From TrEMBL:
Its cofactor is FAD. Gene3D superfamilies: FAD/NAD(P)-binding domain. Pfam families: Pyr_redox_3. This is Flavin-containing monooxygenase. Keywords: FAD, Flavoprotein, Monooxygenase, NADP, Oxidoreductase. It comes from Novosphingobium rhizovicinum. The lineage of its organism: Bacteria, Pseudomonadati, Pseudomonadota, Alphaproteobacteria, Sphingomonadales. Belongs to the FAD-binding monooxygenase family. Transmembrane segments: none annotated.
Length: 619
């Protein structure tokens, strides 16, 4: 029996698809800002504290480190942890995880806002469940549970001994004289590292909306990634914001974060203004406890099988007869299309016909979600403004049962700033919208992260210089240039992770585990074989990129019709910057199989190998 709520989408013949599509395009057009990414204010300079200050844990003084290590991993979030665990498995113990947070977790360390939960099936999303024997309590786990699980993983793999917390890497310079990287940090560390792995995650640095008069406002301001419980009351895991009962609060943004926060602000604040430029898609939550008997009965390998099934449903295509194990917001379109095909006896449809069916189903699902707003929000004008008009995956889909009803509270008002493309301005006492000033005590930025901006701005590392001092920022200014998405010519012994020119799995941690395995293989083979330097040759890199581009799937038509966001480089189609980088068009599992064949061949083909003996003595 399906666990998914049987809410049914309206049939296609009851939807005027051309008219809705025209509305989608109009909604996109009125939001496109010519400033695109430049509209945002970075959390550097006078706003650096928003990024750098840790409101949760004090920075403990320590002496700078000046030694040598095999590997420096920049990051101790999911990606940095997965790489570290795989290095351990490959027999490399001598490494550091360096992170500016005070513990493992990355985004799950920093984000402690009220209502924080994962929007993905925890049985896929939370990594290494079989290895750690951990059963997520619910389908959608709370942030506090996910961070606790990060600590379990770190203990399981013995990562605490190797962690340098509250430390920001500032300089990374290749030294050909000793064939090592010099890694400098804001704590005065000067570490010599044989290898460096950049594992900072795609949504690491908070950004601020560019609003006129930002510095005029005299009230309280903070970003959701650094929640100030001191000000609001409550604490992480106990979202009772009692100190807001006499406060007028505004929150900017209605993305995945704000959707989770708004119900708590509406419940506790004296007055809440929700400032919305583009509405999210918000389905019902249907959260539920994990059944321990079901969990205990799972066969070996169940998590990877579930992740693969989820990936098919969310990002590729379910095979004929393949069940949808995850059954939630992410998989509805695939599940429905497969049900249609099953009813027709599995006709052999072309990719174009499959895409057409998906598109029609997309309109039907979005129509259902818009009807959900009408059913839950009393005021018709507010309901209309909350309806999302774009295709399903133009923004990160959300699920929440309390967001819409919050707008029925007398103390909550939606401020729809779509027409003005953002707030008019801030003043000393509040904000101005359509000429009217609204007084507030507190302004909360749920304004997201640097995702598609230039890498130097996103990464916050002053220098990453490879051979001849070449900056990675310059080398990649017009796009990634990699071998296997993980190494680059001119940057010996350096590994990149995440969404570059690699496979992208719908479950991030799966991508990171597999990348960690590949990096662990190359690094450990180099050490075993007495190789000082591994670096892709120019020819191998060119051939890799040529193949990647020859099999690329062009989804620009879909993406460019979306309302602007970091999913489509804020609507700026002139630059190809996408959260997923340039993904491997043949699919994630084809990419993985390709890497596995490469490792099994054991030749490290495409890499130039400089033996340890060629090391020049240090001066
Ligand atoms: P987003 O980037 O998704 O949202 C930022 C919000 O700020 C948008 O609503 C945006 O509007 C709004 N905004 C920006 N500038 C202005 C402005 N000048 N005036 C008004 N509004 C403005 O950030 P989130 O923190 O919500 O989410 C980031 C990502 O983090 C998610 O996409 C998801 O990947 C992840 N996340 C995951 C969760 C999980 O469950 N696993 C939970 C929370 C977040 P507009 O859309 O018009 O640009």
């Amino acid at each position: 029996m399906s666990l998914y709520n049987p809410t049914v989408c309206p049939p296609a013949d009851q939807i005027d698809i051309p008219a809705i599509r025209a509305k989608y395009l109009a909604e996109r057009d009125r939001r496109i800002k010519k400033e695109a990414n430049d509209q945002y204010v970075p959390t550097s300079g006078k706003y650096a504290d928003i990024y750098e200050h840790d409101p949760y844990n004090p920075v403990v003084p320590r002496d700078p480190i000046t030694g040598e290590t095999d590997v420096v991993i920049l990051g101790a979030g999911y990606c940095g942890m997965m790489v570290a665990a795989q290095l351990k498995k490959a027999g490399i113990d001598d490494f550091y995880n360096v992170d500016h947070g005070g513990d493992f977790g990355g985004t799950w360390y920093w984000n402690r806002y009220p209502g924080i939960q994962c929007d993905n099936d925890a049985l896929c999303y939370m990594p290494l469940l079989e290895e750690t024997g951990y059963m997520p309590s619910r389908k959608f786990a709370d942030g506090i549970e996910i961070q606790a699980h990060c600590r379990i993983i770190a203990k399981h793999f013995g990562l605490y001994d190797n962690a340098l917390f509250h430390t920001l890497i500032k300089t990374v310079n290749w030294d050909p004289a000793i064939n090592r990287w010099h890694v400098g940090t804001n704590r005065g560390d000067q570490i010599k590292a044989r290898f460096v792995v950049l594992a900072m995650g795609p949504l690491n640095k908070p950004k601020l909306p560019g609003i006129l008069g930002m510095d005029d406002f005299k009230g309280k301001m903070f970003h959701t990634a650094r929640w100030d419980y001191e000000y609001t009351g409550g604490e992480w895991g106990r979202p009772e914001l009692e100190k807001l009962k006499d406060k007028r609060v505004a929150i900017i943004g209605t993305g995945a974060t704000a959707v989770q926060v708004v119900p708590y602000l509406g419940k506790y604040a004296k007055q809440l203004y929700v400032i919305q430029r583009t509405p999210s898609t918000i389905d019902f939550r249907n959260n539920r406890p994990t059944d321990p008997e079901w969990f205990a009965a799972q066969p070996d390998g169940w998590q990877n099988a579930r992740i693969e099934n989820f990936h098919h449903a969310a990002m590729e295509r379910l095979s004929p007869g393949e069940p949808d194990l995850v059954e939630d917001i992410w998989t509805e379109i695939s599940r429905n299309v497969n049900a249609e095909l099953e009813a027709e006896g599995w006709p052999d449809v072309t990719p174009e016909e499959f895409a057409r069916r998906r598109e029609v189903m997309d309109y039907r699902v979005m129509e259902r979600l818009r009807a959900r707003v009408d059913a839950m929000v009393n005021d018709p004008e507010t309901a209309e403004a909350l309806k999302p008009y774009y295709r399903y995956l133009c923004k990160r889909p959300c699920s929440n049962d309390d967001f819409y009803p919050t707008f029925n509270r007398p103390n909550v008002k939606l401020i729809d700033v779509a027409e003005t493309q953002g707030l008019e301005r801030l003043t000393e006492n509040g904000f101005v919208h359509k000429g009217e000033e609204y007084e507030i005590d507190c302004l909360i930025f749920a304004s997201g992260y640097e995702v598609t901006n230039d890498l130097d701005r996103r990464w916050g590392i002053d220098v990453i210089a490879g051979r001849e001092g070449l900056s990675i920022y310059d080398y990649w200014r017009e796009g990634f240039q990699t071998f296997q998405g993980m190494m680059a010519h001119n940057f010996p012994n350096m590994f990149f992770t995440g969404f570059t020119q690699a496979g992208a799995n719908a479950t991030n941690s799966k991508t990171f585990i597999d990348q960690g395995r590949h990096i662990g293989y190359i690094a450990s083979e180099a050490i075993k074989r007495g190789v000082a330097v591994v670096e892709p040759t120019q020819e191998a890199q060119d051939a890799y990129i040529a193949h990647l581009r020859s099999v690329a799937v062009d989804n620009s038509a879909y993406v460019n019709e979306c309302t602007p966001s970091y999913f489509n480089n804020e609507g700026d189609a002139t630059k190809k910057r996408h959260i997923f980088g340039e993904p491997w068009g043949e699919g994630y599992y084809a990419f993985e199989a390709m890497l596995q064949r490469w490792r099994e061949a054991g030749e490290l083909k495409g890499l130039s190998l400089t033996p340890e003996a060629a090391l020049e003595p240090a001066e």
